[in-house]
């Protein structure tokens, strides 16, 4: 099977969805001998030459300051679309509702391959965070939902993600297809844990709490800090380790200092006079080091109601680490309170009560962690096998004309129109190149070499071809705009 995977980011950007594409490609190639091609906006300096699959990059705009490192792709590019079409995918699978799905729809017009879309995250929250004008944000969300609506089948990573998608305007059906974990199942040996965590003040017998992810407000990190202040004020000793980076990192550090949970390195604020109870490690990209931190911790704190799946919860479970989650959140799906995790109300008092109780019974936390490892862990290999089987079913449905038709709107006609004109413009440019090559090779040498003084005489045929090519370039730029 030939599979084209599309997303609005790929390495060197590292995030959850990039991780999804890497694992899809890895196990489809290894276990099914599939051919995989990935499409992504250009990221300067990216080198894909060592990968076992081809990465097709298309033009992009640098919006990294606005979007924390991400670039916006320009999907109306003939060269990239032609390259993807020549690959001849059997399945097109988009993982972002922006430029990736626009290119995916154009590619479907070229190849007639079924288009699947996976909804990974609550894009409406990110859009409203980046775009402050409500009317523009509303319209952007509407267009993205329309892009999703245009796909042949829609997958979501959790039931809660599907319901969020419906809340923002999606009216079709969705299929829950969870993501997996690339951590090996099992705890890391003591020697490796000691080596990775060396240099940090982590006394034996003192509970270690852990958070891994973007340091941003909508992950509910303020709730964690508020709860930590409560238990610290009551005299509880602990260590809270934050792994990651994000736009609100400095704000969280300032809050921790104000709450007396860590010392102020600059000495401008009072902070704590004792050891740092909050430790900001920074981002860790080495998967084995992350496994070691998950093994060292006693409880994973993840009160986010933003995340649609919470892969970090499954990664923690792979290492025998149970999580504290907000009741009815997407990340809490599959968690049984008091069995393989702990569920709280979405407030600092509820979390503080759990932490106070947990601190005096670490053995109980470790039993919860073992249950989490046995019951909620799911490997990437299992997830990709499930996805591949569904690909086969979708292809079979497509062959007999049984795929449900997506709801069409004006953008379908726009995509069809754009695809047609991109093809025609591309053909016109190639034809003009052939015309130039033909006439250049057949023009009599005397005409080509005729000179007057030091300069060459104007060649009317060459001048005509150059003007026509300029017209083609102008038409192409106009269509893209």
Structure commentary:
This protein is an alpha/beta fold and 481 residues long. The chain is elongated and about 85 Å long. The chain starts with a strand and ends with a helix. The protein contains 17 helices and 17 strands. Helix 8 (221-233) links the parallel strand 10 (208-212) and strand 11. The strands form 4 sheets. The chain has a 7-stranded parallel sheet, with helices on both faces. Strands 12-11-10-13-14-15 form a 6-stranded parallel sheet, sandwiched between helices. Strands 4-5 form a two-stranded antiparallel sheet.
Structure, briefly:
By secondary structure, this protein is of the alpha/beta class.
């Amino acid at each position: 099977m030939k599979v084209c995977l599309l997303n609005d980011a790929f390495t060197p950007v590292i995030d959850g969805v990039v991780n999804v594409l890497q694992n899809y490609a890895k196990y489809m190639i290894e276990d099914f001998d599939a051919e995989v091609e990935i499409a992504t906006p250009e990221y300067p300096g990216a080198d894909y030459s060592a990968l076992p699959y081809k990465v097709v990059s298309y033009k992009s705009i640098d919006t990294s300051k606005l979007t924390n490192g991400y670039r916006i792709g320009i999907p109306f590019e003939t060269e990239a679309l032609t390259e993807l079409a020549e690959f001849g995918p059997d399945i097109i699978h988009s993982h972002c509702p922006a430029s990736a799905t626009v290119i995916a729809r154009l590619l479907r017009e070229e190849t007639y391959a079924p288009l699947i879309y996976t909804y990974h995250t609550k894009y409406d929250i990110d859009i409203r965070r980046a775009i402050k004008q409500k009317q523009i944000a509303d319209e952007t969300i509407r267009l993205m939902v329309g892009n999703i609506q245009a796909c042949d089948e829609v997958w979501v990573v959790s039931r809660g993600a599907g319901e969020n998608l419906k809340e923002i305007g999606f009216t079709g059906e969705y299929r829950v297809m969870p993501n997996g974990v690339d951590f090996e199942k099992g705890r890391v040996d003591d020697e490796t844990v000691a080596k990775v965590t060396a240099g940090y003040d982590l006394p034996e017998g003192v509970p270690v709490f852990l958070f891994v992810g973007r340091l941003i407000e909508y992950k509910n990190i303020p709730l964690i800090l508020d709860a930590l202040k409560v238990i610290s004020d009551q005299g509880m000793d602990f260590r809270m380790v934050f792994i990651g980076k994000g736009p609100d990192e400095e704000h969280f550090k300032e809050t921790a200092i104000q709450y007396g949970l860590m010392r102020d390195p600059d000495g401008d604020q009072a902070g704590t006079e004792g050891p740092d109870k909050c430790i900001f490690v920074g981002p860790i990209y080495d998967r084995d080091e992350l496994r070691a931190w998950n093994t060292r911790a006693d409880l994973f704190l993840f009160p986010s109601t933003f995340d649609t799946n919470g892969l970090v919860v499954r990664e923690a479970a792979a290492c025998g680490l149970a999580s504290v989650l907000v009741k009815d959140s997407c990340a809490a799906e599959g968690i049984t309170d008091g069995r393989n995790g702990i569920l709280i109300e979405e407030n600092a008092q509820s979390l503080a009560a759990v932490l106070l109780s947990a601190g005096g019974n670490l053995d109980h936390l470790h039993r919860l962690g073992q249950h989490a490892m046995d019951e909620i862990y799911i490997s990437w290999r299992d997830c990709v096998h499930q996805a591949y089987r569904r690909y086969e079913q979708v292809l079979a449905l497509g062959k007999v004309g049984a795929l449900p038709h997506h709801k069409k709107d004006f953008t379908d006609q726009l995509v069809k129109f754009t695809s047609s004109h991109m093809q025609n413009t591309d053909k016109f440019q190639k034809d003009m190149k052939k015309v130039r090559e033909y006439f250049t090779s057949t023009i009599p040498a005397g005409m080509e070499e005729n000179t007057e003084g030091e300069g060459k005489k104007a060649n009317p045929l060459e001048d005509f071809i150059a003007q026509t090519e300029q017209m083609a370039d102008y038409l192409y730029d106009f269509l893209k705009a």
